[in-house]
Amino acid sequence: MSKIKKSIIWLLKTVLKLFIISVLYLVVCKWVMPPITLTQLGSVISGNGLKRDYVSYDQISSNAKLAAIAGEDQLFTDHSGFDWAALKQSLGSDKGKRARGSAASTISQQTAKNVFLWQGSGVTRYVRKAMEFVYTKLIEWIWGKKRILEVYLNVIEMGKGIYGIQAAAKNYYQKDAADLSRSEAASIIACLPNPKRFTVKPRSKFVNFKSAWILRQMHNIQGDGKIKALITAK
């Protein structure tokens, strides 16, 4: 057997082992919050620090849960991980429109990327996207919607060095995530496209505009039976 063939076999075996380990880690994360993510580690290394305080699902305001769904993924309770219509629109010329919701990447996709993968662009972005598909399907099957939303609201970046809704609530409003009002929750979620650029405090023009839009969407979807059941789940 040639050295090249041996190297390829070794590489494939290594990749398979790493994937199996990551799947086992994913299963553990159904009950345990991630100790740290690559994005959070990058924040520490870059000097932005790490403000984070994990909280359980029932310690997060229903307003924050509703704001996240309204602002990021209004089809969250209906799809199985992907909003194919939004993805198609994001690749086409009509990027400004969404059937329901504002992001091409669903909450499930964003959670998979932030917990198990990395940020960035270039060639590695395409590798990440392929892996993101797999991890998104796995968390949909293994975690379920409630756990996905809980982890999402705990790990997502909500300001420079600020991760999760509890740290954001403390930093911006000096209160717990459980006590966030509708407008406060909407303002925090509004920064998510780029939390380092679109600041909650001082309040950027984008956050001002987007939070008003999110508040309207919260009103529009609050009567949806599936969404109501999810945000009030115990």
From TrEMBL:
SUPFAM superfamilies: Lysozyme-like. It is a single-pass membrane protein. Its main location: membrane. It comes from Arachidicoccus ginsenosidivorans. One of its GO terms (biological process) is peptidoglycan biosynthetic process. NCBIfam families: mono_pep_trsgly. Keywords: Cell inner membrane, Cell membrane, Cell shape, Cell wall biogenesis/degradation, Glycosyltransferase, Membrane, Peptidoglycan synthesis, Transferase, Transmembrane, Transmembrane helix. It catalyses: [GlcNAc-(1->4)-Mur2Ac(oyl-L-Ala-gamma-D-Glu-L-Lys-D-Ala-D-Ala)](n)-di-trans,octa-cis-undecaprenyl diphosphate + beta-D-GlcNAc-(1->4)-Mur2Ac(oyl-L-Ala-gamma-D-Glu-L-Lys-D-Ala-D-Ala)-di-trans,octa-cis-undecaprenyl diphosphate = [GlcNAc-(1->4)-Mur2Ac(oyl-L-Ala-gamma-D-Glu-L-Lys-D-Ala-D-Ala)](n+1)-di-trans,octa-cis-undecaprenyl diphosphate + di-trans,octa-cis-undecaprenyl diphosphate + H(+). This is Biosynthetic peptidoglycan transglycosylase. Peptidoglycan polymerase that catalyzes glycan chain elongation from lipid-linked precursors.
